[in-house]
Amino acid sequence: MSEMKLTTLEFIRLLPQFMREDGAVKGLAAAMDEIVPDLAQSAATLSTWDHIDELTEAELDALAWELNILWYDTGASLDTKRALVKDSDLVYKRLGTKWAVENVINSYFGDGYVEEWFEYEGQPGHFRVYSTNPSLNNERLTEFLNLLNKVKRASAKLDGIFITLTGQMPLYAGIAFRETSKEQYSIGAKL
Are residues 34 and 59 in the same domain? Predict the structure, then answer.
């Protein structure tokens, strides 16, 4: 018996002998022989998702193009590209939401979050972006705003971008207290 693969399937051979002579069954088997190899080939490409961490930069760029990831930047780092491809379907599902904006901010610029208008008593439909990345300065601001416009709700208005920096610094405090008083005694004899 020869080896059977999904790409060279002969479905009729998988059926019991008594079914092989029925005309309708023969037709269905022939149709399966046409359909299954294409499905098997499509299923083989699904393994790409299992190996995103092993794809080259060119393969990631091609995959991002195929997936039409609007916020994908070919100039980004390899780790950023991988994160964007991995999360692309989730971002597309939630495009225009706070979560989508935060996800893209975190992929490109590290830690960051969005504060919506009702969280800081702003105007309805407005929001603020907070990031801990000091490189989000004038040079990267245009890039950031372009990315933001691709994932935020079109009617949402950005009120500001705030860079928050944290660090440790030794702080010393001290106090000195000195009490002084003046006392006067006179010693004299009584006569």
Answer: no
- Cβ-based neighbour number of residue 131 at 10 Å: 20
Please count the structural domains in the chain. 2
The model's pTM? 0.58
pLDDT tens for each residue of 67-119: 999 989 888 889 999 999 998 999 999 999 999 999 888 888 878 899 999 99
**Domain containing 80 — which CATH number?**
1.10.287
Residue type, 106: N
Q: Which of 90, 84, 89, 87 is nearest to 57 (CA)?
A: 84
Rg over alpha carbons for the chain, rounded to the nearest Å, is 35
- Do 60 and 152 belong to one domain? yes
Q: What is the rounded CA–CA span in Å between residue 150 and residue 144?
A: 10
Strands (E), the chain: 112-116, 126-131, 157-163
The two beta strands, 126-131 and 157-163, are: parallel
